[in-house]
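Dear support,

I submitted the protein below through the web form. The confirmation email said the job was done, but the results page showed an empty box. After a refresh the structure appeared. I'm attaching both so you can tell me whether what I see now is the final result or a partial one.
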Amino acid sequence: MSGVMDRVNAFSAVRFVEMFGPLYEHSPWIAQRAYAHAPFADVQAMQAAMRAELDRADDAEKMALIRAHPELAQRMGVDPTLTSASAAEQASAGLDRLTPEEFTRFRALNDAYAARFGIPFIICVRRSDKAGILKGIQTRLENTPEVEQQTALAEINKIAALRLADVLERMEHEA
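What the results page shows now:
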């Protein structure tokens, strides 16, 4: 992986944001700010720089990032803002193949969650399945808004870490 990190560290700011801006849903500003911490000793240092920039962001930026995430279990083709990464991640958990009953259940829970918190429910779906996601929504509906915002940001960092691993793996195979 050091060869890949050497390539990453040689990127211009524009190329870095082009490659890593999509890690955080519709929020390339995180990669843009993290670039200031290059060169990175390793992948963990790069992830830490991105997490630090998210931590340093103001509340409005954090809420914009959270709200940039798609609602889970939307019917494919319904949400024009759904990125290919999000669509693939949701498909990996079977959210693109819900029965009508499952879709109705997700819809009701998503609606209750949005009404309570004013944000979409965010979970790292690649580390879960339909049943785990449903349980997560039900459990997290009991959180306070502050706890839920922090939980959403932690889940976003998990998603970004998996996406980063995917990008670096593709780069390694291209070399």
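Response: this is the final, complete result; the empty box was a page-load delay. The first helix runs from residue 2 to 10.
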